[in-house]
Design goal:
The chain is of the alpha+beta class and about 600 residues long. It folds into 4 domains: about 220 residues, 3-Layer(aba) Sandwich (Rossmann fold); about 110 residues, Translation factors (Elongation Factor Tu (Ef-tu), domain 3), CATH 2.40.30; about 110 residues, Rossmann fold; about 120 residues, Translation factors (Elongation Factor Tu (Ef-tu), domain 3, Beta Barrel). It has 15 helices and 32 strands. The longest helix is centred in the C-terminal third of the chain and has 25 residues.
Amino acid sequence: MIIRSPIIVVVGHVDHGKSTLLDKIRETAVQKNEAGGITQCIGATEIPAKKIKEICGKLLEQMNCNITIPGLLAIDTPGHEAFTNLRKRGGSIADLAILVIDINSGVQPQTKESIEILKQFKVPFIIAANKIDLLPGWKKQKTLSFAESFKHQDNDVKDRIQNKVYNLMGELGKYNINCDLFNKIDNFTQSVAIVPCSGITGEGVSELLAMVSGLAQKFLTSNLEVTKGNAKGSILEVKETKGLGTTVDVIIYDGVLRRNQYLVTMGEDEPIITKIRALLKPCELQEIRDKKCEFEHTDEVVAACGIRISAPDLENAIAGMSVESADNLNDAEKIAERMKKEFHAVLIEGEDEGIVLKTDSLGSLEALAGFLRRNNIKISSAGIGNVNKKDVIKASHMKGKNLYYGIILGFNVGVNEDAERIAAEDKIKIVKDNIIYHLLDSYNEWKDKVMEDLKRQELMTIALPGKIKIMGDFVFRKSKPAVIGVNVLQGSIKPGVQLMKESGEIIGVIKQLQDKNITLQAAKAGDKIACSIDGATYEKDFVDNEVLYTNIPEKDFLKMKKGLKSFMTKSEVELMQEIVQIQRRNNHLWGLGG
C-alpha cells in the first residue's frame, strides 16, 4: 500500500498568529539541515518524515509512534477561506487541521467559524495555544519543545499557563469540544489536544509536529492510500501567470497527474474539458530568489502535492472546484457529466422561500449555506460570483412572499452596478462581509429592524392608550362637533379613536386634530392642540379640566398584549393598565380572552 503525506491546514481568528506559526514551522524545517529539507510546492510546503523526526527528537518515541507517512503537506495559505477551497464531494481533502488560538485572548468570532467549518467538513484538529511568549514573566528558552521550556519557567508562570489552558477548555466546552493539554490525554479519539506554543520563538513546534504526525500515523493511514489511477484534486486558486495566461493552482490528493492528459473541472455554468499544456512547480529553494528561475516544468506529479497547471480555457474555472484527469476524451466527458450533477446538487435546490446567498467559491458556499441553515435561515437561491441583476430580482420576488427574505448575503463578493441600482429601487438589502459570523449578525440586526418596523406599522392601525385633559380656556365650538383645546398627558391620540370618561362612559369620537391651523395625524404626550370631538357637547358630556381616555377596543388590546407590548413605552404600558382597570369595572372579564 502506497500512502501519501497528510494534507494539513492552519485555521483560526485573525491576528492569532496563523501565518507566523506556519512560517516558523517552515523556517525550522529549513534551518535544521539544508540537505533533504522541505520541498516548496505550489500553494503548499512538504515537510519530509526525516525532517519531522529531527525536529521532534524523542517525542515520537515517547508517543510510541513509528513514522511511516512520507511527511506532511502543509497548505501555505492559512485561514478558513483557503480551507473551504480544499473541498471534495462530501467533505474536505484536508486530513488534519491546526486550530490556532491566542492563549491570551481565547475563543474569538473567527475561532467559532473555524470550529463550525471543521465540524461541518468532518476534519479532525488539534489546538495550537499560541503566543505563550507574551505571557507575563515567560522566559524564552533555546528549545523547540514546550515541555523543556516549561521546566525552566517560574512557578507563577506555570500556574498562569495552567489557568489559561483551563479557561480555554471551558470556552471550547461550550462548543461541545472535549479537550486537554496534549500530555494529559490518554485517548485521542475522545479528546482534542491543546499544544501551547509560540510562532515567534518556536517553543512548542516540536510537540505540534509530533502531535500532527502521530495522529495522522495512528488514525488516518487508511485515508492516505494513493491509487495509481488518474489524479484527483481541488483548485486552490485561479490566477494569471505571465506568459501562460490563466492558470490554476491545484492540490492533488490522489493519483498521478501527467502533462498532455485531459483536465476536467466545473466552470461557472458548464464543465470545462481542456488539455494540460504544462505542469509547473517552484524551483529548488536555493534558486527560488532568482526571478529568472521561478518555476520549472515537470512531466508528472504524484499525490499529495501542490502544482500549477497551464491549459487553455481556464478563464471560468472556480476556486474550490474539484479537478480530475483523464487519458482520453470519452472518459473526460463522463467525468464532466458527473461533475455537473454534483455541482448543481451543491448549488442548492432552492427552497420555496428564503434569502439569496452569493459567495466567492464553492467551498465557501457549502460552508456558509450549512452555517445559515443550522441557524434556521432558509435559502431560496445560492450561487458563486458577484451579486447580479438576477439575484436582486429573485430577492425582490422573495420579499413579496415574506419581508424577511428581501435580502442578499454576499461572502467575499462584489455587487454589479445594475444590481446595486435595482436593489436601491426595490429596497432590497445587500449585506457583504468576509466573516461568516458578521454576515449572520448583520442579517439578524436587519431582521430585527424589519420586525420592529412591521410592529410599529401595526401599532399605527390600532387604538393606542391616550390620556388628555380638557382646556376650558380654549373652547372653539361646543358641539357638532365640539372643538376644544386639550393637553395630551400620556400616550397618544389620533382621529377615529373613541374617547371615554373615567367611569368608562363613551362620549364621542376624535374627528380631527390641529395645531396652529395645521392638521395632525396624531398627537403625543406633552402636545397642546385643538381637538374636534364628534357626538359630544362641551359642558354636557365633558367639562373643563376633566380627564378623558381613549377607548381601546378589546381586540386591539389583545394585539398589544400578544406581540406589540415590547414596542410601547413604559408610560404607554402603565396607561394601558389604567384603561384596563376602567374597562373591567363594567366587564370583569375584559381583555382576558385570546
